[in-house]
């Protein structure tokens, strides 16, 4: 399968590396320099198993990925407008998969002309080391669901590498995205403000009290979600990634823009729409926005 990947940050490199072992991958990074390096050196994935390097093609992002059988968009949510401009020039029959945190991108997807759109959530941990190297800090799976249309080629993606880099197709994109957004809204802002690894949200009793307070605020917004299941899910993520730094903490430490608007901002918008107060979450949002402004 010919797969184009828009974005060559941590997630883009991780998917380019793994899918490049089994498919013909073309990367569409932001700069000509990164495209040159990817063409010369390929992508190297390091992590819990033996490091590997795969050869990929690369072109600067403004080039339309119009000859692909699947396009995967891995840029962060606040950069999606640029990717959308590229997608609008593409053949609308080419399926597109979006891998972003949060749910703020759904209105943008409604405006796209593509006949087949999928959304996904990423359970892998990834950290970009340099322009061609990514560290896989945790192995999980990629959850997929159709936002629009259907695609017979999904079978080839699901069967790519089920034992080492699995994809799972789910029936309801809204519930899938909401569960991931819920977990991110609990873990990312709090770790970014406290500057701690994920595990300390449970093992430090004072941090755990705030963690629980945020949970109680957010679960009250979504009666469709099971309280017990969501508590087990978010605490399980903290335990399984106890030595990891959240992506938002990494962004804050780098002085980079965070995805706070796409994640906790969505929760605040939901609370306002339902006329509910979530004061602890609102305070965390303002703290992260303040750190962004400072940087």
Task: Please tell me about this protein's structure.
- One of its GO terms (molecular function) is 2-dehydropantoate 2-reductase activity.
- Keywords: NADP, Oxidoreductase, Pantothenate biosynthesis.
- It catalyses: (R)-pantoate + NADP(+) = 2-dehydropantoate + NADPH + H(+).
- Its EC number is 1.1.1.169.
- This protein has two domains: 170 residues, NAD(P)-binding Rossmann-like Domain (Rossmann fold, 3-Layer(aba) Sandwich), CATH 3.40.50; 119 residues, N-(1-d-carboxylethyl)-l-norvaline Dehydrogenase, domain 2 (Orthogonal Bundle).
- By secondary structure, it is α/β, with parallel strands linked by helices.
- The chain has twelve helices and twelve strands.
- The longest helix has 22 residues.
- It has an eight-stranded mixed beta sheet with strand order 5-2-1-6-7-8-11-12. Strands 4-3-10-9 form a four-stranded mixed beta sheet, covered by helices on one side.
Task: Reconstruct the topology from this structure.
Layout lengths: L1 E5 L3 H11 L3 E5 L3 H10 L1 E5 L4 E3 L2 E2 L11 E4 L6 H8 L8 E4 L6 H6 L5 E6 L2 E6 L2 E6 L3 E7 L5 H5 L8 E3 L3 H22 L5 H4 L1 H15 L7 H14 L6 H8 L5 H14 L5 H16 L1
Parallel strand pairs: 1-2, 1-6, 2-5, 3-10, 6-7, 7-8, 11-12
Antiparallel strand pairs: 3-4, 8-11, 9-10
Key features of this structure:
295 residues, alpha/beta, Rossmann fold, N-(1-d-carboxylethyl)-l-norvaline Dehydrogenase, domain 2, eight-stranded mixed sheet, four-stranded mixed sheet, 12 helices, 12 strands, globular, EC 1.1.1.169
